[in-house]
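Support request from a user on the community tier.

User writes: "When I paste my structure tokens into the form, the page sometimes reloads and wipes my input. The last time it worked, I copied everything first. Here is what I submitted, just in case something in the input itself triggers the reload:"
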């Protein structure tokens, strides 16, 4: 019998196993034992290992998008909103490192990112960031000579670098305010 708790425990088990294993190393037997369910129970919710991993990634991306959407709709001024959203994105992925690793590995195996189910949620996150930049442009605080999608890609890239590269190389992770200041004002002195 299907229950939301069992599905959730299976998804959490995959993410937990992703902390110490690569995508191809995670076996469904191990997922079942970690989730404390029978292996057949996994197949009640997911058609195969790929479907399971897609759902782990999709749930994680949906979760961060839902968190970010709240701030995007707020009445905060542009810079505060940009900082709040960037902080939420960054905090989420720092606290869910195994999710990001699984997502990257899964994307690498799946091929073209726009062909797999998570592309919709990735685009949703991108569009949420874009909405904030549009607000900034309307307020005269964001450049008009660089297309907003390009600016959104750079911001998300800076956040990804902060969250992934600095930690991987055991470098001190800069504060989110530093990243936003660098993004908005560049590295030159004024």
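"...and here is what came back when it finally went through:"
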């Amino acid at each position: 019998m299907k229950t939301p708790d069992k599905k959730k425990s299976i998804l959490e088990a995959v993410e937990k196993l992703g902390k110490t294993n690569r995508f191809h190393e995670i076996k469904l037997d191990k997922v079942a034992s970690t989730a404390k369910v029978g292996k057949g129970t996994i197949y009640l919710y997911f058609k195969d290992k790929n479907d399971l991993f897609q759902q782990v990634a999709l749930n994680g991306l949906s979760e961060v998008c839902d968190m970010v959407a709240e701030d995007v709709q707020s009445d905060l001024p542009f810079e505060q909103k940009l900082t709040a959203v960037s902080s939420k994105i960054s905090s989420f992925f720092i606290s869910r490192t195994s999710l990001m690793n699984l997502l990257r590995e899964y994307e690498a195996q799946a091929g073209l990112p726009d062909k797999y189910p998570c592309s919709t949620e990735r685009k949703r996150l991108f569009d949420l960031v874009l909405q904030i930049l549009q607000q900034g442009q309307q307020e005269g605080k964001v450049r008009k000579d660089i297309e907003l999608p390009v600016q959104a890609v750079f911001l998300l890239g800076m956040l990804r670098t902060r969250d992934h590269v600095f930690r991987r190389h055991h470098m001190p992770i800069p504060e989110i305010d530093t990243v936003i200041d660098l993004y908005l004002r560049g590295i030159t002195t004024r």
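Agent notes: The reload is a front-end session timeout and is unrelated to the input. The chain has two domains: 1-46, 53-185. Residues 42 and 49 are 9 Å apart (CA to CA). Escalated to web team.
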